[in-house]
Amino acid sequence: MSLDSPPPPAGPPPAGPQVGADEWVARQARRREYLPSWLGHAQRQAERVGWWPRLALVGLAAAALPLIGLGGFQLQVGIDALVIALLAVGLNITVGWTGLLDLGYVAFFGCGAYGFALVSSGQVGANGIHLPSYLSIPLVMLATAALGVLVGLPSRRLVGDYLAIITLFFGEAFVEFTNNVAPATLGGPNGIVGIDPISVFGYQITSNTGYYLLLVIVLVVTMAVLRLLEFSRTGRAWRAVREDPLAAGSMTIPVDRVKLMAFAFGAAVAALAGTIFAAQQISVFPTDFDTPILILIYAGLILGGAGSIAGAATGALLIMVIYDGLLRSPTDSGYLFYGLILLTLLVKLRPWRRLGLVLAATVALGFAVHAIATAISARAVAGSLSSTGWIGSALHDWVIVPANATVAGNWGFVALVCLLIALVQAGSRTRTILLPPTLYLAAFVWETRLSVEPAVTRQLMIGAILIVMMNARPQGLLGQRRVEAIT
Amino acid sequence: MSTDANEAGMAGPEGSGAGGESVLQLQSLSLSFGGLRALSELDLQLRDREIVSLIGPNGAGKTSVFNVITGVYEPSAGDVVFAGKSIAGLTPHNIARMGVARTFQSLRLFLNMSVMENVMAATYGHTKAMPWESVLRLPRARREERESRALATDVLSFFGQRLAGYRWDQPAYSLSYANRRRLEIARALATRPRLLLLDEPAAGMNPTETHEVTELISRLRDERGVAILVIEHDMHVVASCSDRVVALDHGVKIAEGSFDAVASHPAVVEAYLGRDPEALSDAG
Amino acid sequence: MGFFFQELVNGITTGALYALVALGFSMVYGVLKLLNFAHGDLYMIGAYVGFFVIQWFGGPSALSISVPLLLLIMFVLAGGLVGGLGVAIERFAYRPLRDAPRIAPLITAIGISFFLENAALLLFGAQFRVYNTADFISLSSGITIGSVTIDSVQIMVLVLGLLLTVGLRELVNRTKLGKQMRAVAADREAAEMMGINVNFTISATFFLGSALAGVAGVMGGLLFNQVTPTIGFIVGLKAFTAAVVGGIGSLPGAMLGGLLIGVAESMITGYISSTYTNLFVFALLIVVMLVRPSGLLGRAQLQKV
After folding, report:
1. Nearest residue of B to residue C301 by CA position?
2. Cβ of A432 under 8 Å from any chain C Cβ?
3. Exposure of C218 in the CB half-sphere (CA atoms within 13 A)
4. pLDDT by residue (tens digit) across B178-201?
5. Chain B: nearest CA to A267, how far in angstroms?
6. Nearest chain A residue (CA) to C293
7. Interface residue of A3, A30, A33, A483 to substitute, partner B, most B CBs within 10 Å
8. Span C265-283, mean pLDDT?
9. B159: Cβ contacts below 8 Å, ≥ 6 apart
10. 10 Å Cβ neighbour count for A209?
11. Could you tell me which residue, A4 or B88, shows the higher pLDDT?
12. In the predicted model, what is the mean pLDDT of residues C164-169?
């Protein structure tokens, strides 16, 4: 080992950039990921337009929906979807950008709703407090943001998993708190009723159409604000903290303060959603802010793609339309169920020949099974389909529904889960073979169990979406795949 | 030969090339984890525009020195004085804002952010626009954004074609290894440092790139006017760019002085090669 | 004073149950660094397995086999089935995500927890299922010291809990599998390089941890009598608390944490009000995490740079 004299460098430094394989890949590769097939094509076209014309256009189209006859149940679905979308967009700040797993987020939603309810109803004092909404909404948002900072305080020392637990408990504590503490003020399980409507420029919003339009405007404005924030100094700091807190600290970013800011902003957006929710519902109950809602918000964010504002909103809207749509009559939700399966097959299954083969095999299998079952025992087809209308008559001779549909359906459900797992694990050829029985079994379980208990089915769907998305497409529909250094 | 005898002889901050006032002073700095002493009684001084190399075998405590200076660890005893002020115990972002920037041996880039954003993120401490100013595009926010972008462009162009314009919007993870090291330096420069700590800037590079690093370190001092403390294992880099070399072993300074003096210092040779007599005669 | 000791006994019994769930939770965290949010739901499934075993053998008041045999079948079947379910969950949902960003398996775990809970709702219904323990185990045949009674179910839970814990400790500390588990927990990649079958070790860990939750589920059924699809969530939450308070990844810590939470809960219920039990447990967790983020028996991790 000679430390004495440095030998001359191995060669003269290159004059210009050498385009090696690495450089070539870096220059050529489009790193953007798109949705499969024609959906991705549409996505590419949409990207040619700037973000704000796109947002404005979508906002206008959404606002126009009630004009072309969206009403009643559909309008309520729209309102629910917009509230969840607003929540998902807010959750994206902490989870998607700052990388903090905030499992108490739904409590901020609850604080917003309860806060608004307390200052806009006859609940407190003899005559109640009836603050005008231009005062109460900012007030509630600020208070909730402050609470967000308080809950975020542990994030200074606790990372990742520990923070998840603390915040999860915070969410639970909120429900316990509203259920048990100060029943005279918070109403216990009976909640708070008789909440004032929101008034904008002296105009009281009392109709569902009004709240729908308000929510569209609020969501579009929030998305625009967050978009401007994302590529500002603050947004960069949030994402830098997500990527590497230690390096961020060494690059002049006050990590703790930036995390708390993320908590505060997320909480404020959630509170905003809460105030509108409370005013629209006219009442708030502790169960409105329980874990299932939290998981719903997460499912929306994950489906759309954490880290992307458009993704969060799209995912939440999509999930809520399915979620609420399932509660309709068995036949109507049947359209949704079979339609979604067909759509998935259309997008995912290639080439066309394979798609046709699978569909034909499924149809044939169904008739064969039905015929065999009828021949063996009349009891095996004694039950009736839950779908009626043309789906019902189309499936009548295809899906078997035994006399004891519940028990058979339960076993079918277990078998379906096993088959689906096998399908995911299988290679391409086995998958083609497994698909027809899986599809048939899905229809069987749908007709015997799932459409009978839509409330459970939609929760199952939310859980399944989280599992499947994380495994199949963790970046969500519109998000960007992220890499993480393994250290 | 005995290790303890050598400390006094070689010590003494006679900076060779650069004069000027002292930028950084480590005063009998110690760091221990439980019973393990990572650094003990370390003294070190850096003057303005001086390049000092920190060498030593693996586990000698070199990176620990960086971590104490940048506030990642708090020293268990002793003091760190930067530009006349004690910075021991301050938070990393405050230290960085005062003018101490660093790179990481294990490359800690913001991988999923674009090259440009990586650099612009590091201007956080020197900008003041509040979130609502950014959202409303108020004058201060727009001015700062412009300045940050200009600064980022400036530090990226320091690397010439290597981090040329077409790369600015690519995510950092798409960069090659050598470019990631360059981006780390660019990012550190964007914090407007007076003192730059480089942790193995040439690790994992081929000979051509290593040569470039050597030139780069001198250019950083000449063009950016920063004092540089560099950890490096490649002795060619150390020899050709340092004004002064400090050798550490087991958290103790064993030699300090010009490269030639330190490289041939028996304690250093022993630290690297062990007490084998044959190896000693080879090196001598 | 008798009331205090009675509450203490009750607390320790519940604590032993939490400790068993927390042990499995902590083991899984040790090898995968994953908060398995679905762990509480495995407890729930275990409780259902126990219930259906009782029904299978004629129901609580008309058992066709002897009680010890029934208990044995309940525990073995619950442990085995739930353990297998845990292995399947790991294999199909967590394994593909081993090198994904940290947040991905956590969200998957939340999804699985939600899925299991609702699958149980679909399959078993929302109604309370009742063990009717008193119909086949005489609760009066216990030990009475002064005014403190420890009934036979409590004794069984305590003894079994102790046995399982000691057994687990011996397994982790003495056997080859235990050594492999500790190696994987310390550094998965290095363990793989040393020729350890990491996939098998993780599967085994999941089996053991889930089986403990299943056994605890049967114990819970015997102790509290009622089973619904939602019991998993709250027990899971208590087990997280126990594991975290004791120091996550540390087995003695999980034990200690479980007992602590059980006793604290029982004292709050006894002396203050059952309304505030959960809020109090939450407050305890916050205090411990702020004062000693690494838990009572956990070791602080050094930040690597």
Report:
1. B33
2. no
3. 27
4. 899 999 999 999 999 999 999 999
5. 15
6. A158
7. A3
8. 83
9. B182, B185, B186, B216
10. 17
11. B88
12. 91
In total, the C-beta contacts within 8 angstroms joining chain B to chain C are 7
A210 in contact with C at a CB cutoff of 8 Å? no
CB < 8 Å to A234, chain B: 131, 134
Structure tokens at C78: 């619950």
pTM, rounded to two decimals: 0.88
pLDDT above 50 for B218? yes
SS3 breakdown of chain C: % helix, strand, coil, rounded to 5? Answer: 75, 5, 20
When mean pLDDT is compared across B180-194, C201-215, C276-290, the lowest value belongs to C276-290
Cα torsion angle, A250, A252, A257, A260, sign: negative
Closest-CA residue in chain A for B238?
A: A6
Is C150 or A89 the better-scoring residue by pLDDT? A89
Task: Look over chain A and give the mean of its residue pLDDT values, rounded to a whole number.
Answer: 86
Q: Which residues of A touch C286 (CB under 8 A)?
A: 154, 166, 169
Neighbours of B169 (CB within 10 A): 11
Q: How far is the alpha carbon of C302 from chain B, nearest alpha carbon, in Å?
A: 9
User: Among residues of chain A, what percentage have pLDDT more than 70?
Assistant: 91
State yes or no: cis peptide before A351, omega within 30 of 0: yes
> Cβ–Cβ of C108/A424 closer than 8 Å?
no
Cβ atoms of A260 and A145 within 8 Å: the answer is no
* Sheet strands (E) in C96-181: 129-130, 143-145, 148-150
The reply to whether B142 touches chain A by the CB within 8 Å rule is: no
């297998």: which residue's tokens? C84
Provide Rg for chain A, Cα atoms: 27
Q: What is the pLDDT of residues C121-165, one digit of tens each?
A: 999 999 999 998 888 887 777 788 878 888 888 999 999 999 999
B2 contacts chain C (CB < 8 A) = no
Whether residue B277 has pLDDT greater than 80: no
Q: How high is the ipTM of this complex? A: 0.88
Q: Please give the angle made by the CA atoms of C89, C94 and C96, to the nearest 5 degrees.
A: 125
First to last CA, chain C: 54
B105 → chain C, closest CA residue: C305
Supply the pLDDT for residue A273.
97
